Amino acid sequence: MDGPTAVVGTGMYIGGEHKVARLNQLRVWAERGLIHWEDGKDNSYASISIKDALLRIQALNEMLGNRVDDKDIPRFRELREKIQVFIEKMQDVIAQAREQGAPDDPTRRSYKPAQVVIPEMYFEGLKC
Q: By the 8 A CB rule, do 17 and 4 touch?
């Protein structure tokens, strides 16, 4: 599902050129300047700010640390490498979210306000 369009369990479509970071059943992507994640285990979904995402990958880095004693155990080495790849992809996702701009930045608006046309006959029966 790394192609141009992927379906997420919440029913949302990720279209375009989105980078997706995966760790087991966790999928993370950037959209509209936010970081979105979905956990395939329980189909939960949430979105977080760029700052919160940076704090989370910092915590993962600190958790991994530079321990030497567990590098010889294959299970730990594989898990460490898997998490490091996830962190690298998360950095790409965060960079994409930064390019998209913060959702609360008024200069970022790339859409036009919706215009609604209401026929005159709608108002004929109303007393104003």
A: yes
